[in-house]
Amino acid sequence: MVSATVATSVILTTEALGYRISLFGIVAYAVVIGSDVVIMYFSSRRLLSMFSGIVANRPAAQSQESIQDRGEPHEALQLGEREQIVVDAIRRNGGSALQNSLVEVTGLSSPTLSRIISSLENKGVVEKKRHGMTNIISLMGSRRQ
Question: What separation in angstroms does the CA of 82 have from each of 22, 33, 73, 111, 128?
């Protein structure tokens, strides 16, 4: 964007001062503008694909009633939407998961996930154990099964 602005300013200033722009100058200007357009196009496509990938990988929260209907271990608890997303991600992973992998799976930031896990730990839903540079997060009900 900056290069397109500078190139356009140079062209306009040169014309305003009454100087004639050579064919080479016009071609150079066209190359700068064309390359900026191509870079912006592919950058925006990349950003959109990254964003849509994050949104597509974020699991939909299940309602509390659907958990109660299945008779699963945490039926008496009222979990928030994000807490339910984390619990569902752990459940889909067999009842335990590495905390850093939950960041990727849920699309939540690391600090947000950490707060949610602490909340779930306080409610007795999950257990957190240190594992190298990360933690293993396990559903409390999965140990009994």
Answer: 61, 45, 18, 13, 17
CB half-sphere exposure, 36, CA atoms < 13 A? 14
pLDDT higher than 70, residue 122: yes
User: Taking a C-beta distance cutoff of 8 angstroms, is the pair 85, 108 a contact?
Assistant: yes
Can you read off the two tokens belonging to residue 5? 């602005």
What does the block give as tokens for 108?
Answer: 């939540």
d(CA 87, CA 127): 11
Residue 42 pLDDT more than 90?
no
pLDDT above 60 for 66: no
Give CA–CA dist 43/32, Å, rounded.
16
Structure-block tokens of residue 87? 């619990």
**Does residue 145 have a pLDDT over 50?**
no
Range 64-144 has CATH code 1.10.10.10: yes
